[in-house]
Amino acid sequence: MTNEQYAQLVKKRSRNSRLWLDCLKAFLIGGAICTLGQGILELYLSLGLEQETAATLCSVSLIFLGVLLTALHLYEKLAKHGGAGTLVPITGFANAMSSPAIEFKAEGLITGLAAKMFVIAGPVLVYGTTAAVVYGLIYWLIGSLW
């Protein structure tokens, strides 16, 4: 098979890209999640809570909603249409943290739920902590030199 024949075969078998539609759906669904978060924040502020407390409760509420939707297998349906729009907000991180644990809960509390909870978060926590230490050392060295 020649390169030209292979290129024709690939073109024939490949489906057309829906990049603009996918980007629009990611924007709209991600924006809807962020709008929901802003609405929750405004609700807590209207109840008379201070900004810092309201922001903390908003984050906790969004994490709870992300885990709840993951446990009900609704977040994956949302992500199917929203793509990266569901990954960026805090709900996406909650989904990434809880989905392995929920998937393996049948294996038991320790070997399933607890062990698999850190499949995604483990590398994030390790490299995040390491990066923070390295950046802190660099900052301290620069500060002590000047």
Layout of strands and helices, then pairs:
Blueprint: H1 3-13, H2 19-46, H3 51-71, H4 75-82, H5 90-103, H6 109-116, H7 118-145
Helix pairs in contact: 2-3, 3-5, 5-6, 5-7
Give your account of this protein's structure.
- The chain has 7 helices and no strands.
- The chain is mostly helical.
- It has a domain at 18-103.
- The N and C termini lie far apart (66 Å).
- The model has no long low-confidence stretch (mean pLDDT 85).
Question: Quick recap of the structure?
Answer:
With 146 residues, the protein is mainly alpha-helical. The chain has helices at residues 3-13, 19-46, 51-71, 75-82, 90-103, 109-116, 118-145.
Largest beta-sheet details: none
Q: Round the Cα radius of gyration to an integer and report it.
A: 22 Å
Distance between the termini: 66 Å
Shape: extended
List keywords for this structure.
single chain, 146 residues, mainly alpha, 7 helices, 0% strand, extended
